[in-house]
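Our preliminary data section would be incomplete without showing what the modeling component actually yields. Below, a chain of 131 amino acids is followed by its predicted structure, encoded as tokens that our downstream tools consume directly.
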Amino acid sequence: MGARKRIKAEQSKEANKTVSFAKLNNCPTSPRKMRLVADMVRGQEVFKALSMLKFSPQEASRRLEKLLKSAIANWEAKNEGLRPEENNLVVKSVMVDSARMLKRIQPAPQGRAHRVRKRSNHVTLVVDSLN
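Predicted structure:
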């Protein structure tokens, strides 16, 4: 590994020490529906985001709520002795990427068949303190 690459890697490791994240892979919700919910909580304080997700009617919000709780727990494990209420934790970023697509067949009139694409997604949620 070259010197520049090593220095850059050390800088990114140092920057990621305060950041905690959680990943959800192969979530059986379409990425478009998940992005609508993710846009709602991006940049919010974590406990405000939790309450928004709890009372949101979308099905994707239940999955994102569980993921946010996991990210908070990861932050608490990394920063022992610190409480998230006192450290102004915020949802730094939420990335929703498309995952595999299940391709199914739906019968159509006159002996034809239509393809149904059942989409899924990967979600990465990053939590960081505002301080």
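The first helix runs from residue 3 to 15. The chain has one domain: 20-106+113-129. Preliminary results of this kind motivate Aim 1 of the renewal.
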